[in-house]
Design a protein that fits this description.
Layout (H helix, E strand, L loop, with lengths): L11 H10 L11 H7 L7 E5 L5 H8 L3 E6 L2 H13 L5 E4 L6 H4 L3 E7 L10 H11 E11 L17 H9 L2 E7 L13 E7 L1
Parallel strand pairs: 1-2, 1-4, 2-3, 4-5
Antiparallel strand pairs: 5-7, 6-7
Amino acid sequence: MYDQIDDNVSNPSFWEQKYQTGDTHWDLGGPTPAIIDWINRFKTSQKICVLGAGNGHDAIEISKLGHQVTAVDFSKTAISNLSIMAEIHKITVDAVESDLFHLPAIYTNYFDIVIEYTCFCAIHPSRRAEYRDVVEKILTAKGILMALFFPITKLISKGGPPFGIDINETIPLFEECFLLKSKSSPALSIHPRLGEELLVEFQKI
């Protein structure tokens, strides 16, 4: 099904080049309003992993709210940018340069919450079940995956990244390991992404 899709996104050099040249059109330049609004429900410190953290806007804002944040990205430059910004803001973020598929070797049953935004759509679509398994392994019992899925109206056949996400396929994929707690169209989507995002909360079974 995915034979015609180039697997260059699985190579760290693909993402490193984008960060080095500033070709990061997905970067909002600040934290994602819908994610921060969702995180604000937690009044006690949580161990939170931000996958595909990029320049770290969300990770830094979540850390400011008092949580223990691990931010993961494929790109050395992205992690360097994130670390510099964390220092400027005088907050602590564990910035990890890694292939996310290697995380279970270090973080098995470790995180209370995993944040997904523009990472699932960036990996090769053939690895989506593997991604789900990684998230399941790194979460604690009853841990939560908060996914802001994007783009939900784009077809896989249109290529990427970002690769389209078919919600009617994606939710059942995650339900093999997770309980669906809620799903909604976020009122706080940024204007260019209105109607292209779905906020979904899963809990590890």
